[in-house]
Design brief:
Layout: H1 15-28, H2 33-44, H3 50-62, H4 67-110, H5 114-138, H6 149-165, H7 170-193
Helix pairs in contact: 1-2, 1-4, 2-5, 3-4, 6-7
Length: 200
């Protein structure tokens, strides 16, 4: 039985629980991994609150490497240290590696057929829809962000414009908008820590 960590979340029961949970998660995550990760970790297993998930996912995206692999390492390390991080990493990589190798062998023989090309285009559209739906669902967590909902929406819109329309390199967007949002969040958090007028 998983131990409770607070009123809304609980922790994995063991490293084996981490391994099998991330294996199940990985086998569902073809193309729409963000939607699956959010549902599994926040809604079903309740290892993270929605706000914690948004913060952890943001860090996982900025770090080098695949987002979900970074997230698995962070969650495993949080609960069981190095053993937990390695267990979660093995869970997220082992089964999908076998599946991808088998699919690569099969796809090599049908890659040029019209139905295979159509299937890939259709899967791409479904993946985009899953990611968009999850992003909308997670917007509610921004209300508790130190910067406030308006600032978060403005930053998201600016990021979309910079990458999708202006085609700026991701590294410059991260350094520019990411650095500006970091500075603004730091300032807002500092303002929250200041004593109020009636404080001792």
């Amino acid at each position: 039985m998983a131990q409770q960590t607070d009123d809304t979340t609980r922790q994995p029961a063991s490293c084996a629980d981490l391994f099998w949970s991330f294996t199940v998660l990985a086998l569902q995550g073809f193309g729409g991994v963000l939607a699956v990760v959010q549902r599994e970790l926040v809604e079903k297993r309740r290892w993270l609150t929605r706000e914690q998930f948004v913060e952890e996912w943001a860090v996982a995206q900025v770090m080098p490497g695949p987002n979900v692999v970074n997230l698995s390492l962070m969650i495993g390390g949080r609960y069981f240290g190095l053993r937990g991080a390695l267990s979660a990493l093995a869970g997220i990589l082992a089964a999908p590696l076998v599946v991808v190798l088998l699919l690569a062998i099969f796809y090599g023989s049908v890659a040029d057929t019209n139905w295979a090309q159509g299937a890939l285009r259709g899967m791409g559209m479904v993946s985009a829809g899953l990611i968009a739906a999850t992003g909308i669902k997670l917007m509610a967590a921004l209300g508790k962000n130190a910067m406030g909902l308006r600032a978060c929406i403005c930053l998201a819109a600016l990021t979309f414009v910079a990458i999708a329309w202006l085609r700026w390199p991701l590294a410059w967007v991260l350094l520019g908008l990411g650095g500006a949002s970091f500075a603004w969040a730091y300032r807002c958090l500092g303002r929250e820590d200041l004593p109020g007028p009636g404080s001792p």
